[in-house]
Amino acid sequence: MRVLLTGAYGQLGRSLLDRVPAAWVLLACGSAELDITDRAAVERVVKKFRPDVILNAAAYTAVDKAETDRVRAMKVNAIGPENLALAARDVGARLIHISTDYVFDGSKKTPYLESDQPCPINFYGLSKWEGEKRVFAVLPQAIVIRTSWVFSEYGSNFVKTMLRLAATRTELSVVNDQVGCPTYAGDLAMAMIALASAEQAQGIYHYCGDVAVSWCEFAQAIFVVTQQDTVVKGISSGQYPTAAVRPLNSVMNCTRLQEAGVTPSDWQACLLLARLSLSSVFTPPEPGVKVLH
Predict the structure, then answer these.
(1) Is residue 124 among the annotated active site residues?
(2) Where is the RmlD-like substrate binding domain (predicted)?
(3) Closest C-alpha to 72, from 33, 120, 123
(4) Hey, where are the domains in the chain?
(5) pLDDT tens over the chain, length 293 residues
(6) In CATH, what number does 2-154+183-209+253-264+281-291 get?
């Protein structure tokens, strides 16, 4: 199977590169090699490589910065995916695109289903929802995976932030009234790989961790695993104002993907597995994996 991976050097892209099936012929592109907001460039690469599947791991993920950097956020999270969908349609390729739990407003008291109506309360969520709509408008058979609270050995994420802060502080204050599901990027990568091989799969799927926690509880779990004595104090969202408002509940129901044979991310086991010294060193792709330069 010929697979084009965009956003290859973000934490999800790198996690995918670590797990590429040997049977894949992969073209991995970072943003420097392929800017998905450039429609002509996307068309040129896709027509030349002619992938069977496009995996879009490229995204603008700076939630607070998106409130003021709106043009760039919309280009990367909405126009870029639309460009990929158009190119995929032209060559008959399938597209798997990543979205977010932040398309929801957090007012629901139970886990969100794929059929629940999005209602984002920050611009990041709005840009991702717009991306979903544009993808399906062009390619109704596309796959969109909504995920949440992603962490990994790579890039910037909540786990690394907590460990960095704990290096110089004995006590941290972390929001305890926002609840969601941490997701290990390696597990998300495996879910994408599974769906890439499932020819009948289409539509929206939710994929996230199997246990919901607050950010405060997530931080506490991190320090238990890393055996640090850092004290974590819970505070309200109102005590920690941010540029972007976050949903109080962004827990998602993953039953639809489970019925397709993909289990939710066991994020607690992954914390134990990684020990979350979380090396930022990038391991080059194995021989046979083509990276576009």
Answers:
(1) yes
(2) 1-270
(3) 123
(4) 2-154+183-209+253-264+281-291
(5) 999 999 999 999 999 999 999 999 999 999 999 999 999 999 999 999 999 999 999 999 999 999 999 999 999 999 999 999 999 999 999 999 999 999 999 999 999 999 999 999 999 999 999 999 999 999 999 999 999 999 998 988 999 999 999 999 999 999 999 999 999 999 999 999 999 999 899 999 999 999 999 999 999 999 999 888 999 999 999 999 999 999 999 999 999 999 999 999 999 999 887 664 454 433 434 333 343 32
(6) 3.40.50.720
Do the Cβ atoms of 11 and 270 come closer than 8 Å?
no
* Residue among 9, 60, 102, 124 flagged as catalytic: 124
3-state DSSP call for residue 195?
helix
Helix (H, G, I), strand (E, B) or coil at 71: helix
Count how many residues are written for the chain. Answer: 293
CA distance 228 to 220: 10
Nearest-angstrom CA–CA distance, 292 and 16: 16
